[in-house]
Design a protein that fits this description.
about 325 residues, alpha+beta, Arc Repressor Mutant, subunit A, 3 domains, 5-stranded mixed β-sheet, two-stranded antiparallel ribbon, 15 helices, globular
Length: about 325
């Protein structure tokens, strides 16, 4: 049952702020009261089903099915949608779910899955059971994702796909709202982008400084965030860059290498194991891109010699990269 679905208090306040941008205060306050959702509640978790239903009802009353997305647009124009957010490098797209959750923008409506194709790839939104019919909330999440990915990333969004069917006029309105081409009636909601960024780790000193600032900001926002979690998030970007991954991660987190090792070990983890796991996952993520040669993949994963990569790959999967690719993708 949906009655147990909850969302964070901060996320709830973001939704209310977005609705405030387009719903008259009296009507919003009345609706909040009817759904027993206080504007300044102290509860740590808010009933998600009631919040989603509230948003859908207000959108219907206002005659605007994309009400929440327009509200997020208003917050973005007021520079309130991503307060203090630094750019996100395009090569850590698998962390979009995590970053949106930390930044109080993830609606908990569903999760993104990264799908890499031959020339283009996508972040596809898979809704959780019980939230299949909430198209307005899905669109709002796609809007925030587009804005998030645009900030300082080499990523180039090609189009947004929507499960809901829209006429030509509505589709043009949605394209104006999202800032990219839109196709409706698709199998899955998602953001489609070019593969051109996949071999472009953020190698400049300036972009690395931004990456470190962002990660430290997230640690301040989420005191319970483990050091191992931060390392897992940084490794997909720093592997393949000049320098040792441990030294790069320690520098970005503003601690010494030894301190970082101790803190990771205190959480029952080991930096070398985290590095190996990150390389393994990144290898699997990038392998569907057929234009990527084994030699290019080895360099992207930070191996100086292709033979080193072959040995590591056999340790991970018990076979060569070529055989693994054929077994997985034909």
């Amino acid at each position: 049952m949906l009655i147990d679905a909850t969302m964070s208090r901060q996320n709830f306040h973001h939704v209310v702020a977005a609705l405030d941008a387009h719903v008259p205060g009296g009507r919003l306050d009345q609706a909040l009261n009817e759904y027993r959702l206080e504007r300044c509640t102290e509860a740590e978790r808010i009933n998600h089903w009631r919040c989603a239903d509230l948003t859908a009802r207000l959108a219907n009353q206002q005659g605007d099915p994309v009400l929440l997305a327009r509200g997020f647009q208003a917050l973005e124009q007021q520079r309130r949608l991503f307060p203090g957010l630094s750019p996100i490098p395009g090569d850590i797209l698998d962390r979009v779910n995590q970053y949106q959750r930390y930044l109080c923008l993830h609606s908990e409506l569903g999760d993104y899955r990264l799908r890499i194709g031959a020339e283009e790839s996508s972040l596809q939104l898979f809704r959780r059971p019980g939230f299949e019919g909430y198209d307005g909330q899905a669109l709002a999440l796609l809007y925030s994702t587009c804005r998030l990915l645009e900030r300082g990333s080499p990523l180039r969004i090609r189009r947004v796909t929507l499960r809901a069917h829209h006429g030509e006029r509505d589709r043009r309105d949605l394209e104006a709202l999202l800032g990219v081409p839109v196709s409706s009636g698709e199998e899955q909601d998602g953001v489609v982008f070019s593969n051109a960024h996949l071999l472009q780790p953020s190698a400049t000193a300036g972009s690395l400084d931004v990456l470190g600032q962002r990660e430290r900001q997230l640690r301040r926002m989420q005191p319970g965030l483990g050091w191992s979690d931060s390392v897992r998030g940084l490794l997909p970007t720093v592997v393949g860059l000049p320098g040792k991954p441990l030294a790069l991660c320690a520098s970005l987190l503003a601690v010494s290498e030894r301190t970082l090792q101790r803190r990771v070990e205190a959480e029952g983890q080991d930096f070398r194991s985290l590095l190996s796991t990150s390389r393994r996952q990144l290898a699997l993520t990038l392998m569907p891109w057929r234009e990527l040669t084994t030699e290019q993949l080895a360099v992207r994963l930070g191996y100086r010699q292709t033979a080193q990569f072959y040995r590591a790959f056999r340790d991970w999967f018990g076979e060569s990269p070529g055989r693994k690719r054929v077994a997985l993708y034909g």
